[in-house]
Design goal:
- The protein is an alpha+beta fold and 464 residues long.
- It folds into three domains: 3-151, Gcn5-related N-acetyltransferase (GNAT) (Aminopeptidase, 3-Layer(aba) Sandwich), CATH 3.40.630.30; 160-330, Aminopeptidase; 368-463, no CATH class.
- Helix content is 32%, strand content 22%.
- The strands form two sheets. A 13-stranded mixed sheet has the order 1-2-3-4-5-6-13-7-12-11-10-9-8, sandwiched between helices. Strands 14-15 form a two-stranded antiparallel sheet.
- α1 runs antiparallel to α2 (39-51), α4 (108-125) crosses α5 and α6 (165-172) crosses α10 (278-290).
- It starts with a strand and ends in an 11-residue tail after the last strand.
- The model is unreliable at 367-409, 412-446 and 459-464 (pLDDT under 50).
- It comes from Trichocoleus desertorum GB2-A4.
- Residues 359-420 are annotated as: Disordered.
- Keywords: Acyltransferase, Transferase.
Length: 464
């Protein structure tokens, strides 16, 4: 990504090896201003980037779990680096990205300009990201103003805690009641995904946008994770609690342990909202695991939608180390428009071509054109199709008459032939085969409708 700001001659480009001497102090100063609870871990990561920059650059050329291990950009003005930003994908689909840190050389009054340029350049360049996520200390007013100016809104409040080694020793003395504690594997990804979904509010779940494959580990990813743990002298232990009646996971923990006492232990904890009684059990289990490693504090966090966790940590005497605000922002990328087409040279036939049927319609049995196709007589006086309903009425009456009724029938009226009336297309039952009258198209002349004259004194109810 290389872009030029419209408001100044600043150039936003990817970080290079010669920029690390300036970028590293910028990120450390940003972490100090943000009152980062694990500043040592930030400095250690930056030193690893300097040491393994060539490897990280090579891994960024093809898809792999460490492709975006160090994805950073700098703002250069007059051949001098004025600011830097580090971002990383938050989930496996890369639909949500995280702003790790933003460092700017200018003073507080000039931070908004360069910081906004770095943020907006990332918004425009990374088309995969639909949502951006970050975490900022609530006391860092400058960073809060920068992020609010660029459209970030509060999502949740986080509290970071530290459990002292002495407190871990007390928790380890208690035997945890976890009969269904199982190790984690790729076969349990569906259970962990359901647990993660149930443990978060809908808005947070939408921003995180995690899927089933976010809880699986590929072979290549497992190998790289093993190399990472060997280099950092760490070990990761995880497990989950299975509920056999519901056939679901109700609790999960992951703890990263340090072997050389160079850093604190870090834990992640997920508990189903209906099983908050698992907090003491899972913390006792993690404390017992940490007893096999050098005595270090255990770091973990809680959100404002997890009041039971915060209440338990306060009750056991855990220390609040940092209070942060999680913020998010949605990004809508404008589609690249094609070259506009002039309507002057467009023919009407080309416009109406899309309205024509894809194939010629096939006439059906009831199609009207089929009725009039075939042999036509030269007689132009041939009457159109009509139907004598009186004859149908007489036929129906005759079929329902009995010998008794016919014996006492009144005198029959005289019927005079009336001229044939030209009626339009009438009934359709003759063409359905229910009652077929005509045998050929020349016999389509309708029977003339007779006029009925009643005898004198007999136009009464018997003929109605």
């Amino acid at each position: 990504m290389t872009s030029v700001s419209q408001n100044s001659n600043s150039v936003i480009r990817p970080v290079q090896h010669q920029d690390l001497d300036i970028v590293e102090p910028l990120f450390v100063e940003a972490a100090i201003a943000d009152n980062h609870s694990n500043l040592d871990a930030v400095q250690r990561r930056l030193q690893q980037v300097r040491r393994w920059y060539g490897l990280f650059k090579f891994l960024s050329l093809f898809p792999n779990p460490f492709q975006y291990r160090f994805c950073a950009y700098v703002a250069e003005q007059d051949h001098q680096v004025r600011g830097a930003i580090q971002v990383s994908p938050f989930n496996r689909t890369r639909s949500t990205w995280r702003v790790e840190r933003v460092g700017v050389v200018e003073t507080e009054s000039q931070t908004q300009g360069t910081g906004s340029q770095l943020l907006r350049s990332c918004f425009e360049a990374i088309w995969e990201a639909r949502t951006w996520l970050l975490e900022v200390n609530v006391n860092n007013k400058t960073a809060l103003a920068l992020y609010r100016q660029n459209g970030f809104q509060p999502l949740a409040q986080l509290t970071h805690w530290a459990i002292a080694p002495e407190l871990l020793q007390e928790l380890a003395e208690r035997e945890p009641d976890l009969p269904n504690l199982l190790p984690v594997s790729n076969a349990d990804a569906q259970l962990l995904y359901q647990l993660d979904t149930a443990a978060m509010p809908p808005l947070v779940r939408q921003v995180f946008d995690r899927h089933l494959h976010d809880f699986k580990t590929s072979l290549f990813g497992a190998l790289l994770e093993g190399v990472k743990q060997w280099v950092n002298q760490t070990e990761v232990v995880s497990g989950y609690v299975f509920e056999p009646q519901r056939k679901a996971a109700i609790g999960y923990f992951q703890i990263q342990l340090c072997r050389d006492s160079s850093q604190n232990h870090v834990a992640q904890l997920t508990v189903h909202p209906a099983y908050t009684w698992l907090y003491p059990e899972l913390l006792s289990q993690m404390a017992r695991i940490a007893q096999d490693f050098p005595a270090q504090a255990l770091l973990l966090s809680s959100a404002d939608y997890q009041p039971e966790r915060e209440e338990y940590l306060e009750r056991i005497g855990a220390t609040r180390t940092e209070h942060t605000l999680m913020m998010s922002r949605s990004v809508w990328h404008k589609l690249r428009e094609a070259k506009p087409v002039s309507l002057e040279g467009l023919q009407l036939s080309d416009v109406l071509q899309g309205f024509q049927p894809a194939r010629k319609p096939v006439p059906g049995r009831m199609s009207l054109p089929n009725l009039w196709q075939g042999d036509k007589t030269p007689d132009s006086t041939e009457a159109p199709l009509a139907y004598s309903e009186a004859s149908d009425a007489e036929t129906a009456a005759g079929s329902l008459s009995t010998p008794e009724s016919s014996a006492v029938a009144p005198p029959s009226p005289t019927v005079s032939e009336a001229p044939a009336r030209k009626l339009g297309f009438s009934i359709g039952r003759n063409f359905w085969g229910k009652r077929r009258i005509f045998t050929s198209k020349k016999e389509l002349k309708l029977n003339p409708v007779p006029e009925i004259h009643f005898p004198q004194g007999h136009q009464n109810d018997s003929w109605c």
